[in-house]
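Incident log, structure service

09:12 report received: a user says their structure output differs between two submissions of the same chain.
09:20 pulled the input from the user's history:
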Amino acid sequence: MVRPANQLPPRVILLLLLLLPLGAGDPLPTEGRLRNSCIQARRKCQADPTCKAAYHHLGSCTSSLSTPLPLEESSVPADCLEAAQKLRNSSLIGCTCHRRMKNQATCLDIYWTIHPARSIDSDLCLKFAMLCTLNDKCDRLRKGYGEACSGHRCQRQVCLGQLRSFFEKAAEPYAQGLLLCPCLPTDRGCGERRRNTIAPSCALPPEVPNCLELQRLCLPDPLCRSRLTDFQIHCHPMDILGTCATEQSRCLRAYLGLIGTTMTPNFISSSNTSVALSCTCRGSGNLQEECERLERSFSHNPCLMEAIAAKMHYHSQLFSQDWENPTFSVMERQNNPALRPQPWVSFLFSCTCTLILLWSLW
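09:34 re-ran on a clean worker, output below:
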């Protein structure tokens, strides 16, 4: 039997029907179809007097936050933080926009009002601090060590305990964002905020001890000893070329695990990303070489330096991406399944490949 030229064979039609997913012909998302669009979220907020007032006040904070802060000011203005905290449980915090949605400009205006941390100046450390403030758990844990490590209240062991609690319990993107935020070399304010993240005036020894003395105090403590061992394993260069023992993520986790122990490291200045222990090798005598080896495992460790640089680059990329389509927040972007290729893209690709294959066999 001769088949008409414009007729596909039955087996091809059957395969295409099997490939066709339910809902493949659905239209593109509109405002009504978007999950919690910012326009819808603002309508809900305006029905609540408290939410409405906080939203309008936060809008005025965007312009004030665009002015660089002096060195001694390491936080967002209190009234702006208060407004942000009042909105933390509202639907505005998780609201989204879509590139081709109706009233996109209005939606984006609402989004950037709620997320001023990503629309202000280039101080990414301030931005990550704001993001932490907008998260209940991160904000609570950060306040915990902030109070324990503050000036006249400083009790070093309590401060170290609260620091450990923060870096153990806060979600990794928030903790790493606060500590490993990138700064321009000329932005001393940003660099100082980063250096002050761990409250060094309280967390670090008041007098600079010998590095081997720090290690001597660490080793009898099971927690400190295990954290130091993790660091030595996962941030260890295996050869003269600097080949690292494990992947960068493990090295960073091991590094952060030391914060709050006797071996707490920190950035050495506000102008670069070099880190070191707060100790010296002066007066080490016959143990000078051993002491310098310990000190250099932090200050001249290529695996650690590369891991820190890579994470800071990643954090800077989070803010330099195409934010005209802020469908998800910075902290949700890397793990949210909604950001993976849409099913219809995979469907079209598979159909195209199948048609080419079947047409060649026909």
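09:41 both user submissions now match this output. Likely a transient worker issue. Closing.
09:42 reviewer note: The chain has 18 helices and two strands. The CA atoms of residues 78 and 84 lie 10 Å apart.
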